[in-house]
């Protein structure tokens, strides 16, 4: 028996509340973070991702006080990201209750941050978040600064590099699919999963439970993250797992 | 309300375990003062991060000595969580060789993938199968799911294994020798099952 696949709601924080966009743009308000965490607690969700999407573009450090307040109400594992630029930011987030810390732009600027974080706090708490844009000609490129800045990096190469530096997990998001309800980018997911031995969370594009099943079976992802379907539809993480179980996937119910 | 001393071994998420103990009806006191550790009636040793860094911090602060003094005098219930459990071993092979507290003889060795889909780190929810009569699993079903995040595991005598996780060829999800207990997973992040296990620990 292997570890169970995880269904993870993603909470995107901007300014004062939660938001959700399309293609990393057109943000809509979706409510309060604390309220969402309380609901997901009650529903026994597998794990949460909480990303402060304005921190890096605004040049801010993570808001430790806010994460502290949220983590006090969160009795499930929580990955926290946004604005993490140095090992002290990682330590600060772990100290206030994050279980794992997601790094994106700062790791692209200075990959050694991954190694420093892993050595000091352990590989298991370093999640590298990779945002990928599929160009019109099909070429894949890693983007930084919340999807705005091209890096010239290939996602598969970058995934291998972050694994070698000590990342414990990859949160892989397709910018093109984000918020579209059109399904995950399965070839992208499969390419990254096959390139590394660490767990990969597929993100971006989930519109229904079948999309989750597809990226888990064909993309071989270890977990699925989703936001829009939980914010804007009646679909729930628990129902998703009931569906996935019926499809022969190994879930926790 | 059972009092519990939560040992601050350096870097770790003490908030979550403190909140979870409170939710379970315990009265936690977080400390890195070896004198308070020595007076404790019940101990939780949490931990994330690297084995060597945590042992170094515990040795420098005198906490390792405080724990040894306490447990030599009184058999108080002791629960190591995740890295805290691993620190109970004789030694660890994570980033070189480091001596541990040596509470239950054993070594901390890397997990090995034995089948497709077993990625490392072992991250997520997985089953646990306790020994019959395990006090920590009281009111919990065989196969109860807990949240794991680790790349190394406790290799020890079968008689000291309290519960097995069936992945990676089967490894110790929990160890116990008399009053000394350790769990590889995070009960404070394992929702209902985790709280039940913590309540069971507080009742021992």
What does this structure look like?
The complex is a heterodimer of chains A (253) and B (204). Chain A is of the alpha/beta class and 253 residues long. Chain A has ten helices and twelve strands. In chain A, α7 (186-195) links the parallel β10 and β11 (200-203). In chain B, β5 (91-92) and β6 (98-99) form a beta hairpin. Chain B is an alpha/beta fold and 204 residues long. Chain B has an eight-stranded mixed beta sheet with strand order 2-1-3-4-14-13-12-9. Chain B has a four-stranded mixed beta sheet with strand order 6-5-7-11, covered by helices on one side. In chain B, strands 8-10 form a two-stranded antiparallel ribbon. The two termini of chain B are 13 Å apart. At the A-B interface, α2, α3 and α5 of A face α1, β8, β10 and α6 of B.
Number of helical regions of chain B: 6
**Main sheet properties of chain B:** 8 strands, mixed
Order of helices and strands of chain B: EHEHEHHEHEEEEEEEEEEH
- Class based on secondary structure composition and strand pairing of chain A: alpha/beta
Mean pLDDT of chain B: 94
Q: How confident is the prediction overall: mean pLDDT of chain A?
A: 94
Biggest sheet architecture of chain A: 8 strands, parallel, barrel
The shape of chain A, in one word, is globular
Work out the helicity level of chain A: 25-40%
Multimerization status: heterodimer
Protein chain pair with the most extensive contact, residues per chain:
A-B, 41 and 43 residues
**Strand order in the sheet with the most strands of chain A:** 1-4-5-6-7-10-11-12
